[in-house]
Every structure is written in structure tokens, then in C-alpha cells.
TrEMBL record:
Domain Phosphoribosyltransferase: 107-165
Protein source organism: Propionigenium maris DSM 9537
Stated name of the protein: Amidophosphoribosyltransferase
Gene3D superfamilies: 3.40.50.2020
SUPFAM superfamilies, alphabetized: PRTase-like
């Protein structure tokens, strides 16, 4: 990544909060290109870049919210095979944040291809299996982008089937400008 690109992206990073959702930037044209390169063009070095940018922020959230378990949103097995990695796990590893995996039990359509909120919700319905003991624990769910919140809500639903956590907090690298505050009540 060139110095100018690094400076442009790094200059956008600032911690924001909406309820129990933390994010560091908006999903604008530059961030969209960055994440597309990371996920679709398999430029894995971008995970190291993002991880280093958000590492301190993530550590402060873990401490401030007294987090017991960090859970990255699982990638579908098809996309993990295509890429060779789960982009959210990659970011967490480069940020130096320990995490526990949950299972994605069903492959889904790529969310960036689905513009309608109802289709997004239906796409991820029943896709995750909470295999972790979360009862009475504070959970941080991490994703790269939050658009409508459908994926996060489904992850939370699957965790609740296995026992109610004490508190659930969400962190996303980027928040889509289309996300409405009312949609993001986790």
C-alpha cells in the first residue's frame, strides 16, 4: 500500500458509537475499495493494515466493556476456501486480539450482492450455530462491515439459543451510510 493511500485511510479512523455498536469509519468509496481488495482480490496484507489501525481501539473496547469472549463473524466455508482466510479473524490476529470461533453451518449468498434488507435477513437466517458457552458472559462480536445489521442479529440469535449472555457489544471496522440507527438495535 502506498504512503498516500495509507495516510488517506488512517486519517478516517476514529472511534464512533451507536448504542452497543462501535465502529471506526464509514463505508465510503475509499473504504469500499480497501475492503473489496482485501476480500475479493485476496490482498491479505490489508488485514495486517486494518488490524494495526484498529488494534488499540479493540483493546480499549474489550477493557471498557469488560469483555469475556470476542467472536468474529464466521465466513462461509465456500468463501473461506476461495480466499484462504476469514477476513475478520485475520484482522483480529493482526490486532493481537484473542477470539473464539462459532460455526457457520450454511453457505449463503455474498451479502454485497443483496441490496434489499429483507433478502439479507433471509439470506443469513439459520446460518450460524452458537457452540460456545456464553451464558452470563460479556460478548464482543466483530465484523468488517455493518450494513443493515442482519448478519450480526442472526449471530446474536444463534448465541442466545445456547444461553443468554450478560451483555453483547458489536464492533465493525466500517458502518455503511445506509445503516439506520433503528436497524442497529442489537
Amino acid at each position: 500500500m502506498c504512503y498516500n493511500c495509507y495516510e488517506k485511510i488512517a486519517g478516517k479512523i476514529k472511534l464512533h458509537r451507536r448504542g452497543n455498536l462501535y465502529y471506526t469509519t464509514y463505508y465510503d468509496r475509499d473504504i469500499k475499495k480497501l475492503i473489496a481488495s482485501f476480500k475479493l482480490k485476496r490482498r491479505r496484507y490489508i488485514g495486517a493494515f486494518i488490524g494495526k489501525l484498529v488494534g488499540e481501539v479493540l483493546r480499549s473496547i474489550v477493557e471498557e466493556e469488560d469483555i469475556d469472549i470476542v467472536i468474529p463473524v464466521p465466513a462461509s466455508s465456500a468463501r473461506k476456501r476461495e480466499r484462504g482466510y476469514n477476513q475478520v479473524e485475520d484482522i483480529l490476529e493482526h490486532a493481537g486480539i484473542a477470539y473464539k470461533r462459532m460455526k457457520r453451518i450454511r453457505d449463503t449468498q455474498p451479502m454485497h450482492k443483496l441490496k434489499d434488507e429483507k433478502l439479507r435477513r433471509e439470506n443469513v437466517l439459520g446460518s450460524f450455530q452458537g457452540t460456545l458457552s456464553t451464558e452470563g458472559r460479556n460478548i464482543l462480536i466483530v465484523d468488517d462491515i455493518v450494513t443493515t445489521g442482519s448478519t450480526i442479529k442472526e449471530v446474536i440469535r444463534s448465541l442466545e439459543r445456547d444461553g443468554s449472555s450478560k451483555k453483547v457489544v458489536v464492533f465493525a471496522f466500517a458502518l455503511a451510510n445506509t445503516a439506520l440507527a433503528s436497524d442497529l438495535a442489537f
